[in-house]
Amino acid sequence: MTLRRRIRLSVADLSRSRLLVAVPALLGTYASGAIAQEAASALQEVVVTATRRAESMQDVPIAVSAISGDAIAKSGVAEIRDLLQVVPGLYFVQANQSAQPVIRGITSTNPGVADEPNVAIYVDGIYQPDSQANNFDLLRTERVEVLRGPQGTLFGRNATGGLINYITPDPSFDTSGDIALRYGRFNARQMRGYLTTGLTDQFAWDLNASYYEDDGYGRNILLDKDAGERRSRSARTKLMYRPSEEAKVVLALGYNNVKDYGAMLSQPFKDNTIARQYPAVIRPNPDKPYQTAVPVDEYIHPRALSAALQTQFELGAVNLETATSYQHVKGFQPADYDGTAAGTALPGAARGQFIQNRTRADYFSNEIRLLSNSTGAPTGLPASTASGRRWISACPFTRAHPRTRGSP
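^ that's the sequence the OP posted. Answer follows.
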């Protein structure tokens, strides 16, 4: 086994220069050009799990967009909110600590710790119930599937508008890895790395990690410093046990830590604040939307730990799958809700409105699925399956324990 290592450097707007470099490649012979055109026009089969089983995208009767990991890497998508750049009809809105996806105009604007969005997010088929923990970076990706809703029949609750299924690769028995470095506007730096290897003939392991940091796109005129920066650290590791071709067990552990000042960068709309009657109070210029003038650092700081155990067994006419997961999420959000430098020394209603929100939640879920493996009627199962239908039977269980605390 050999270790392959690739280092990719990409800078914003380099795509224009790539076009200039690619021009000489078009000056080849007609024969080579015809061969390339024929290869490019060939359709490649795209396999998705939009119906809870791996099927060709051409056979799935669902409005679904599937983006490969290579396409995501080439497009410069760094976090889940950036998917709107490559997925038509997908949008994200920021509601305090949570990033809420929007599909077909359906979303949720309530960012409470116990409120789950109307567009579900899945990671490797595991439902992510806490919206504040869904502001995460994309690591090494196999593909992303975006299903337009409603999808409650196969995916249950919170899929009214649809869902996003972010899928990472399983470990490989062949040793490989890569490192990706990126640099962009506002001094944005990102490093992502991936390593996978076989431990034995039946066990394989991988490690997926990312670090991101920038200097922010705004300016705090009161504190005279840049504002709106974002820092994040993410990691995910998998251990796969493959005793045979018909059985697979995957244990996944995840960690995500995001400190996003840009999510709270705001100013009073058109200077609509009671503090404007006090000339001593410094206020941002409403004609400059990236200015702020708050006396404290405002940010969201979600941290999440997760563990998931998934099994797959091919039992002839049926497949048995289980998915068990635990998620622990903490959040912290200091905010100045009047959006100005008004302090407690000012009289009455002009006093600053500073608050600190702390949240903590634990989630446990378990699901057992039995899926037909053919369109015929298996022995010992209902004869109705002989009509050519494919079926799925699931038994899900979910328990949540959210807690929140705020202090002025």
